[in-house]
Amino acid sequence: MLTRAQFNNLDYRRHQIDTLKVFNDNVVEVVELEEYCVHFESAARNFILTVLLTANFPNERPKLILSPRVRHCWVNPVTGEVEKAPGLLNYSPHSDLGRVVQVVIREFERFPPSVIKNSNTVSSSNLILPLSINISHSLDNINTVGAANSTVSAMQQQNINNYLSQQTSPHESSLTNSNLPNLSTLSLDELKKLDNDPEFFNDFIQEMSVVQQLNEELDSMINQLEYIARENLNKEGHLVELKRKLSDDVNTLKNLGEKCDQLNKKYLKKSDDYAPQHIRELLQIAVSTADTECERHVEQFLNGKIDVQTFLQNYTHSKKLSSERKAKEERLGQQLQALERAGF
């Protein structure tokens, strides 16, 4: 087993980076031995997976950050860091960096995640506060210089734009420029109204394209939910009918099962009654009964209870019946013995 000192070896670190380039395409080196970017596509959308190698790598697992941020059970939606991928949860110094990254990329390629719409933009709720600050800031500048004109001066317009650029990141600036009205085009009265009139301020926010887009998406989701609810209600009657039919089928099956058990018991009883061994036992009992009847006729004749003609007739009949039954019993016994010797 490799020791911790061996894992800190620069050659092994380079080996792990080589596996990253072998198992994945479009690997770009940002900082040598520390940061790499892997470009890939999923559902016709471009993604960048940033691989950060700490100073303790490979003894410490790498940090994977996906951009843009997505909704996925492996990804932290706030930071975009891939935290719960199996390769990271089970990471050890023996793991291959290339395979860990490859599994993550394949997961996103096979099951394209939904992109968080605010991942590269600022939400409308976050825009309200900077907008209020900007308005107040511009008004303070106007009051400071004692301007009383109906429009904002060029210097104040520049102050507003500079403040916007300082308060927002590059992504936020692009959103502000594209989705927010330019405050420099507003008159002083309009700026004061925005600052003092909440209703006018809310209307101003609602007219922004990003808010309108969110409202359209919300309306679309509501319509979709209503459609699904109507479909479920329409299928309710059919489901109730299927449930009733299933209950009837279960009762029928139960009745048939009980009837089958009764017939099976009758079958077993008949099988026992007509079993060869049982028939032989019945023949033996019948032979014994016929012999007993013969002895009774002899005893009646000797006691003078019947005449010779009646004795001969009854005795001959009983003796014949006994002989026939005994012959059948002996023949059946021979057949059963033959079957037993044959292995049946």
UniProtKB/TrEMBL annotation:
| Keyword tags | Coiled coil, Endosome, Protein transport, Transport
Specify where it is mainly localized.
membrane
- Please report the record's description of how this protein sits within the membrane: Peripheral membrane protein
Gene Ontology CC annotations of this record? ESCRT I complex; late endosome membrane
InterPro entries associated with the record: Mod_r (IPR009851), UBQ-conjugating_enzyme/RWD (IPR016135)
State whether keyword Protein transport applies.
yes
Q: Which Pfam families match?
A: Mod_r
One GO BP annotation here? Answer: protein targeting to membrane
Q: Which SUPFAM superfamilies match?
A: UBC-like
Q: Which residues form a coiled coil?
A: 211-273
Ranges for domain VPS37 C-terminal: 257-344
Q: Give the subcellular location.
A: Late endosome membrane
UniProt key word Protein transport? yes
As for what it does, the entry says: Component of the ESCRT-I complex, a regulator of vesicular trafficking process. Required for the sorting of endocytic ubiquitinated cargos into multivesicular bodies. May be involved in cell growth and differentiation.
The Swiss-Prot or TrEMBL record describes its family as follows: Belongs to the VPS37 family.
State the name under which the record lists this protein: VPS37 C-terminal domain-containing protein
Q: What lineage, starting at the top, does this entry show?
A: Eukaryota, Metazoa, Ecdysozoa, Arthropoda, Hexapoda
